Amino acid sequence: xxxxxxxxxxxxxxxxxxxxxxxxxxxxxxxxxxxxxxxxxxxxxxxxxxxxxxxxxxxxxxxxxxxxxxxxxxxxxxxxxxxxxxxxxxxxxxxxxxxxxxxxxxxxxxxxxxxxxxxxxxxxxxxxxxxxxxxxxxxxxxxxxxxxxxxxxxxxxxxxxxxxxxxxxxxxxxxxxxxxxxxxxxxxxxxxxxxxxxxxxxxxxxxxxxxx
Length: 212
Description:
This protein is an alpha/beta fold. The chain is 46% helix and 11% strand. Strands 2-3-1-4-5 form a five-stranded parallel beta sheet, with helices on both faces.
């Protein structure tokens, strides 16, 4: 399974859809998980999202056995959940114990560790670029937190220090602040997957004007 996570505005959702187009229907994408509307607390939401991340891994492995020609990808994973909890704590919006509990649950669910069948890519961009790429949503109060530079700086700090929390070699970070993510993505994808793409795709700069 391919997993894309990282800074908001880095373009992960756009890249996944470009990859799906290039693979002509051979890529199944799990969209970004949405917490239940009746969730009673952020802690409950965290548990839901982490269990969802675990379920996606299990489903991808089942599909690898039953549909070997299908490639599975996920928009976000446990890394984004941890970055969010870390940034909330770092900016005084939640106790640090909430982050510690989320990290412990990741270990309990075996989300943190070596998974040779997973390719996890973490896309990075700086907070100012993150805000500017998502400017169309800046006035929507529902997303106010995601435009707070202090929160985004803490979020990026967590991603910059992933080796503190996750074993080295279990993820690849790609800084796409000053580059189109599409050719950058090709450098990080498994070679067997790149060989399935039309040759011209690797040479095309599919820069999207609306990074998600």
